[in-house]
Every structure is written in C-alpha cells, then in structure tokens.
Amino acid sequence: MANETLSKAKEAKNDEFYTQFHDIEREVEVYLEYDPNVFRGKTVLLPCDDPEWSNFTRYFAQNFERLGLKKLISTSYAVESKKIKEWQPTLFETESPYFDADKSRTNGKIFVLDEDINGDGRFNINDLQWSYLEGDGDFRSAEVKALRDEADIIVTNPPFSLFREFLAWIVEAEKKFLVIGSMNAITYKEIFPLIMDNKLWLGNGFQSGNAYFRIIGEANYANGVYDESTGLVKFRNCCWMTNLDHGRRHQPLQLMTMADNLKFSKHKEIKGRASYDHYDNYDAIDVPYTDAIPSDYEGVMGVPVSFLDKYCPEQFEIIGITKTWFGFADKTYPEQIQVGKDGRRSKVTKLNDGATIKHSEVPEGETYYIVNGQIFSQVYARVLIRKKQ
Ligand SMILES: C[S@@+](CC[C@H](N)C(=O)[O-])C[C@H]1O[C@@H](n2cnc3c(N)ncnc32)[C@H](O)[C@@H]1O
Q1: Are residues 295 and 180 in the same domain?
Q2: What percent of the chain has pLDDT over 90?
Q3: How far is CA 169 from CA 44, 142, 145, 164, in A?
Q4: Which of ligand 1's atoms lies nearest the C-alpha of 214?
Q5: Same structural domain for residues 150 and 87?
Q6: What residues make up the domain containing 317?
Q7: Are 80 and 41 in contact (CB under 8 A)?
Q8: Per the structure, how many domains does the chain have?
Q9: Which of 59, 165, 190, 329 falls 20 to 30 Å from 229 in CA-CA distance?
Q10: How does pLDDT run across 10-57, given as a tens digit for each residue?
Q11: 133 closest CA partner among 81, 184, 173, 196
C-alpha cells in the first residue's frame, strides 16, 4: 500500500516530503563511526531543501564544528516553482533586512555557513547567512551547478519525480553523496550499473525500514500511510544511497551451506527439496531469500533485490540484474501463452523479460507460461551475484 502511495505521489509530482532530524542524525553517525574525518575540511552542499531551514541544514549547522566542516551551503527551491498554494513566509524571513516580498515567492534561497558571524568563538546555526538566489533554485540551473562544483559532498532528499536526473547530476560531477531515494530506483538502468561498479551502495537505512516524512498541504493518502496525530507519512521502500563508506557494508553475511539450507532452511520453498531451482534461460540458481544464499555455491545466483541492503563487496560480486535489462539471457522464447492465476489465457512475449524456471507440472497458485507445450514461470527481479574468489 505504501509503495503504491509513493508512486502516486510521483505521478502527482508531489515532492514535498520533509526528512526528520533524527533520521539524518542516525544515518550520518554511521559514516562518522567508520571514518570520524569523513566530513573534515569539506564543503557540504544541501540542495533541493525547504524554503525555510530544513532539518538537513539544522543538522549540519549544529554539528559544523564536530564534523570539522569547511563550509556549509544549502539551497531551496522557490515556492512558486513548487506550486505550493498556501505558503506564508516566516518571521525569520519577513523580519530580515533582506526580505523581498516578490523574491520570496519566485526565487530560491541560499544559506551559507563558513564564518563566525556573531563573533562568539563558535561556528554554529547562529552564523548561517542567507540571501535570495538569482533564480528559483532548480538544481539544474547554472547557479546551483556552480555550487555543486564547489562542493565535496552532496546530501539531500531530492524530489522523487526527478531522482534519475538528480543522481546523474551528482555522478557527472564525480561528487561524494548521501541521498534518500526509493528502492525502486535501484533497478533503473541508469542506477544499477553504478551499484555493479561499486560507485553507489545502500546506506544504513531507516529504523526497521520505516521512513517517516513531514508533509505540507493536503494529506490525501491511503489508510495507514498518513498519521494525523504526528502529521507524518510513512513509506516502506525508501533508502539512503551513497558512495560514502560505512562499516555494515563490510560485514559478510553469515550463511549456511547448500546442503544445510536444503535440510534446515526456515523457508518452505527450500527446506526438504533436492536442489535449488536453476533458471532455464540463464546459468544461475534461484535463491528466493537472502538468508538462503548457499555459502558454498561457486556459480551465479539470482537473489532478491533486497539483498543489496546486505551486500558486502568483499563477499560477493554483482554480475547483473534480471527483469529490467536481462539483455544477456542465454535463450529467447517464441510467443507464449500466459495463464493467469484466474486461468485466463493470453498471448504474450514477456517471458523474455526475466529469469525463468521450467516446471514438470503446472505450478500451484502462480501465473505460468506455455511455450511449445512446456511450462515455465518467471521469477521477480533478481540481482545476479557470485561468491568472490
Ligand atoms: C523530497 S523533498 C525534500 C526536502 C528536504 N530536502 C528534506 O528532506 O526535508 C524535495 C524538495 O525538492 C524540491 N524540488 C522539486 N523540484 C526541484 C528542482 N528541480 N530543483 C530543486 N529542488 C526541487 C521540492 O520542492 C522539495 O522541497
């Protein structure tokens, strides 16, 4: 349900989800634990922020000294460009000598912290200086691009609807980054190759996989997503994506051998079987659960996309992904008859879109495909991995 809401939000171009302070704090601590100097002497840019101080700005300004930052820059997107109807500037803005009623709606803002403005001997949130940007703060503008080029590390929760473009914007400038995105984005053909090349990986993540965001405007969500008492929405499939290193990424998964899995697995699809399924159109076995990866299998294995949350590059290498770009299958099937769970039959060619399993009898409760009298099913998107030698 929550995933559905996220994609609805995407369609509606509703990008106004605001990140909570403790989620930022919890995530950043993981990188500091691994390397206490990760931010030392660095310029951090927080683009795509709120018209007012965001929690990203608050966190990095409050921790400026502890992190050893050289400079903090945050930029926001103009209220008018966001298409927010009911927006009132805060006293912070209206009482400032820089306030301009027109620019307040049409221009983005920039906040900078790099000197001890009030001379109290500390660098903190009280030393943030702000002004209007020349334009609306679009991350694609020349103005914000120049800030990107100046920065060492880019941190934000970018607009979901522009996620591909935003990531490409970071990658083309070869910057370090820590951003929030949807797990669905992992399978995009622009993003998965970065994962394969160890240029992007998952961060620590939200507590128990639940990401809560503050919203503004109408709370038009399915049951269980919006909580009126907190004013927060909950999404299940959000993650942090980064190229900053953290410790969990180097902890190998504790796994059983294939023989032990087949004997003792807690999953009924594995326990008691003679072997793992082998794909019909690619030389790999299907492993439907990350904790069922056999520790002693030397060949290629298709594992769920959620494996990436546990991926340790010293333990496994990633070879590809099925479904979205299974361009390297060993076989192409002619037109198939798809038989749905309700028994409905239709002619399709989609068996070629992913990894397939050949069955000796009709699989129970599953959609299946008939090709030249033979029966096949298709598995969900799988990441293809192999044990590191
Ligand atoms: C998911 S929200 C996150 C806001 C803030 N970073 C946070 O996490 O609290 C994304 C923000 O990006 C803004 N935005 C949308 N399109 C943008 C663009 N082209 N350039 C810059 N910001 C944009 C949205 O208005 C929204 O405020």
Answers
A1: no
A2: 79
A3: 16, 12, 9, 9
A4: 9
A5: yes
A6: 251-389
A7: no
A8: 2
A9: 59
A10: 444 468 889 999 999 999 999 999 999 999 999 999 999 987 789 999
A11: 81
Residue of 49, 71, 83, 325 whose CA lies nearest to 166: 49
Q: Same domain, yes or no, for 150 and 73?
A: yes
Q: How far is the CA of 74 from the centre of ligand 1 (A)?
A: 12
d(CA 369, CA 349): 10
pLDDT at site 268: 95
Same domain, 289 and 213: no
Q: Compute the distance from residue 39 Cα to the ligand 1 centre, in Å.
A: 23
**Number of separate helices (H) and strands (E) present in the chain:** 11, 21
Q: What's the pTM value of the predicted model, to 2 decimals?
A: 0.93
Both 30 and 56 in one domain: the answer is yes
Span 266-284, mean pLDDT? Answer: 97
Domain boundary residue, one of 205, 226, 250: 250
Clarify whether residues 133 and 34 are in a common domain. Answer: yes
**Looking at the structure, do residues 275 and 189 belong to the same domain, yes or no?**
no
Q: In this model, does residue 9 exceed pLDDT 70?
A: no
Q: Looking at the structure, tell me whether residues 222 and 127 fall in a common domain.
A: yes
Residue identifier of the C-alpha nearest atom 9 of ligand 1: 18
> Which residue, of 208, 235, 250, is where some domain finishes?
250
Q: ∠ at Cα 215 (27, 133), nearest 5°?
A: 80
- Taking Cα atoms as reference points, which of 323, 278, 274, 326 lies closest to residue 301? 278
Residues at CB less than 6 angstroms from ligand 1 = 15-19, 48-50, 54-56, 77, 82, 137-139, 156-159, 162
Q: Give 229-242 pLDDT, tens digit per residue.
A: 888 999 988 999 99
